[in-house]
Amino acid sequence: MILTIARREITSMFISPLAWVILTVIQAILGRMFLAQIENFFMLQPQLIELENAPGVTDIIVAPIFSLAAIILLMIMPLLTMRTLAEEKKNKTINLLFSAPISITQLVLGKYLGLLFFVLILSSMLMLMPLSLLPGTSLDIGKLFSIYLGMILLLGSFAAIGLYLSSLTDSQTIAAVSTFGALLMLWIIEWNTDQTLFHYLSLLAHHQPLLEGVFSSVDISYFLLIIFLFCGLTIRQLDGDRLQH
Amino acid sequence: MEAPSNDNNLLVQVEKLSRRYGDTLAVNQVSFKLKKGEVLGFLGPNGAGKSTSMQMITGNLAPTTGQITINGFDMIDQPIQAKSCIGYLPENPPVYRELTVDEYLTYCARLHRVPSSQLLTALDDAKQHCGLEQVGKRLIGNLSKGFQQRVGIAQAIIHQPPLVILDEPTVGLDPIQVREIRKLIQSLGQDRSVILSTHILPEVQATCDRVQIIRRGELIYHASIDELNQRGQGNNLTVAFNSPPELKELESISGVSFINKIDSHRFHIQFDQQSFAEKLVQQAVTNNWGLFELIPQNSSLEEIFVELTTSEDSPQETDSATLEVSAA
Lengths: 245, 328
Prior knowledge:
The complex is a heterodimer. Chain A has helices at about 1-15, 15-50, 55-80, 85-90, 95-100, 105-130, 140-165, 170-190, 195-200, 205-210, 215-245. Chain A is an all-alpha fold. Chain A has one domain. Chain A is elongated and about 70 Å long. Chain A starts with a helix and ends with a helix. Chain B is of the alpha/beta class. Chain B contains twelve helices and 14 strands. The relative contact order of chain B is 0.13. Residues about 1-5 and about 315-328 of chain B have low confidence and may be disordered. The chains are: A mainly alpha, B alpha/beta. Chains A and B meet through helix 1 and helix 5 of A and helix 2 and helix 3 of B.
């Protein structure tokens, strides 16, 4: 049942040009960035040789790209998550789901899984770029995996937050703007402050270690908590929708 | 008050259903029952609480108070089992405009747990039932309103539910489409129960076994369609004479309760005796009044509806049916 909804979610994403456009734009921008980083690496190479314990290809080329990808996707994910529930509410197709013999939990998990599938496609496509260097050089596969995982967890958190904000309204624009605002807030919250709490809340602060190949269970738990929290809130919200209109 | 279907024929049992939106009471203490194979018309003016009731029965909206039992399953305690017995067409057909009819119906069938092996048969059956064979490959968004409505109905019957609930299924359709949809509803009524909400009276007359009128959230009338038709049947006559008698002479005929002179030849007579028309004709012949017109006037269903839904004094109808409703 969850899979039926997830499948439907993916179909509707790829039936409209939106998903394709997003994939294309991101791939194009990051592709350009990738080439620039390679150039950069060649220029730095003479100096790197003299350094002890010099950063490798993975650090100089791959990490900055995925760091940039995180920022770009922070702006783009809201466009993808905005329609998930807001559109169903607007078109009253949500009634179809409410009258079907499925629980709200299944409905929300199905929707989330659909988004997660898109996140997987996107992250995997981005991953192909560094992997294309494999024939020519040696890569730190462990670090690459950590970066890949970090990307999925980060985007998965974006998706959960977006899904929740989309359940609050029947206007896609409002869903997109509020999601963008929330994500941005969770990024800049750590700027120029010594409050550990704020550092603790920041999405990107937990993403950074994974980019550096530091696989800490605190960061992983943070992302998983965000995902569970917002999926749970979405379930609550939809349940509440039936109580008060 | 668990009644584990000791009455096997009972499909829907609604008890003291109420729904509040802020301060407004949209539905107030509505109770009714529906047996298997019955077609129930839910009639009321716009804003009377029809859609709210439908939404609660289908589990789209939680009732403020009250209990809904579908096929023995409580809508609040066992929503999944209860919902699987229902096919629901809301006011706006819940269709995805970007899907084709086939894709959409397949999705609906999966949502309703139709096993994969029966998916194709279910799809064909539903399409055939609703006359959608020709448009299976077309995008729903490009179909006319009538066809979208049919897709909506197909969605409600694809999993062969014992209960089909249709909320104003003929709104916005042209007369031919309306007739087709009514035919479809009639054919649905042959092997399953249907609850049809509408504010269009001929629709109820054409399709329903039972009628239930709701006004300002309260059930005010509840009867079989025959009773309703009988209720409208005449104790009213319009008569015309070539040489009309004095008003007094007419009034003296036993059984007359009210006479209204329409013009110099015509009278409108209300009476309360079955054999009145016969007596009137005899009198007219013996006295040579020159009777040339005698028209029994059935007050139409429409008049009853208007009378019931606009009368100011609250539901004082002492029909046995109404009593049964409030006692249920």
